Amino acid sequence: MEPRSIFAELFLAILVVALHDRRHVVSAQVAQPLNIDAGDSVRVAWLHDHGRRLQGRHVVVWYPPDSLAEPQIHALVTQLDRAVPMLQQAIGGPYPWQQLGRARVEYYLGADRFISHARERTVFIPSLRARDGKAPFLHETVHVLLFVRQSSPRTARDSLEAAQVEDSIPDWLAEGLPDALAQTTAARLAFPEYDVFQSGGPEKVDSSCAARLRSALGDKVLPFIGANGSPPELYTTDRRLVAPIFYPCAHSFTGYVMGRTSAPYLASLFPEMQRGSIAPLLETRLAQTMEQLRRDWLAHLPSSAPAAGP
After folding, report:
1. Which of 45, 109, 112, 142 is disulfide-compatible with 178, CB 3.0–4.6 A?
2. Range of the domain at 122
3. Phi, then psi, of 25 in degrees rounded to 5
4. Is residue 286 domain-resident?
5. What would the mean pLDDT of 35-46 be, rounded to a whole number?
6. What are the distances in angstroms from CA 237 to CA 15, 28, 32, 62, 189?
7. CATH number of domain containing 80
8. Residue 256 covered by a domain
9. d(CA 107, CA 53)
10. Structural domain tally of the chain?
């Protein structure tokens, strides 16, 4: 089959999955839920049938033919092979609770357009972004390293239990720790990690967060920094409105807390998220309430960040 026909086949298959999964009538006025991983099974099947595979010591990369030049894909595997153990060391692993265990991290570079994401032991990234150096490889890799065995929202016994687990997850940490470790490790390794929300890296993330909190939508994001959950818009078609504020501020707050604890300590909280709020654990460790911690962080930000709300 010609490459163009193969790509057309993949696009149509994923379009069918995405349309089948939608449960709401599309409206230009009403934000729609995002199902970020809707086409993953199709991507995996397609790449297994038509793609190419390159294995390193710590990683396996699947990619479409003619998507990345051979020197580029070999360089990517070499760079990831250096980064994965460094990220594992940063969080203090390996741990018995890690879903990955001793397995390699698998990367699927899909031929279609979608939001980069991770599921259990697997990272999904558009091949076009990988080719153009605009992919958050290390951020998604940390998600894999922090994915907890067994009870997660995807394996909860019923929808009520899944919702309860989701509500207990502090997304500021779930996204902030991967971002902080990815950008720090990328700088140490000269890894081409893409700064998706243009926060400026570890040196400028505090300034970026402070400036964006003062924007019109800053008040939508601030209540979720240092608290459970995330802005409702973050996983809808309005994601673009709040994500550029939420991610840098999650990184900033996580970095502040990490400076008073450690990355391994924060990683140890991930299995605790499945059992309930981690706030009491942090409050005991730091001998202050989460609200006091938030106020201290805001005071630490450059040039008069907003005051913490109730």
Report:
1. 142
2. 1-149
3. -75, 130
4. no
5. 95
6. 17, 10, 5, 28, 34
7. 3.30.2010.30
8. no
9. 10
10. 1
